Amino acid sequence: MIDSYLRYLEYEKRYSRHTLTAYKTDLQQFAAFLGAYETPPEKADYRLIRLWVISLVEDGLHPQSVNRKIASLRSFYKFLLRKQAIDKDPTAPLQALKTPRNLPVFVQEKDLDRLFDHYEFTNDFAGLRDRLILELLYGTGMRRAELLGLTDEAIDKTRRQIKVLGKRNKERLIPISAGLVELVAKYVQERNKTFGRLPHNKLIVTDKGTPAYPVLVYRTVVRYLGSVVSLDKKSPHILRHSYATHLLNNGADLNAVKDLLGHASLAATQVYTHNSLEKLKKVFKQAHPKA
Description:
Blueprint: H1 2-11, H2 17-35, H3 46-58, H4 63-82, H5 109-118, H6 125-140, H7 144-148, E1 155-156, E2 161-165, E3 171-175, H8 178-195, H9 214-225, H10 236-249, H11 254-261, H12 266-270, H13 273-287
Antiparallel strand pairs: 1-2, 2-3
């Protein structure tokens, strides 16, 4: 039934490859655990599921990771219920673990200004590509997978917007600046001059002209952010956090930021308001006579 469920997620729910891999890994780990009890997933009860969760905690897995695996199981058993493969959901009594609420890490505006305005990017293909990676991530808030999925056709230079294919294959349009439109045009011109006609339509490519891959983007971000900030954590997602935080700090509407980020619910976006509130508290303490 696991294979049937994964096909359902891929073809009916249209989940991304990354999400499918996570679900597959979670369910295979659960099935392997049940093997010691000679029980298939369809026959597992609440007691066995709880034992598996306890084993994950004892192995030192982070509560957030455990909760993700619990969510995978809940979804799987709801599928089995709909298919009438089981009579009741054994995950119904299961409680998610309590997790500490970590605020998103972001880069200060002045530091990103220093990167984009004063860092000397080389004017060759590699330099233009690296700058475009950084500008797209920070200038649109898109995810790394969304960046890698961009094609030349996704850029609408006239309307100054980008069409992004997000989670669950949901499309959204993100406005971009005139400067970013100009940078894209300059990069594409240099890419085409360097490699000629390519056998694919991906926007971002490697030094050999092949489609860019996740580690290339990660290394690019780490390398350049390391020149302007001393944060322990440097990743493409940090630029997404920075995009959202800076928008809210400068008065953007929360619902608008939600749509720009491609969040399914407002709750996922509200975490960024905590950073904005901290800034407001600081301003209040500095400026209000009764603070």
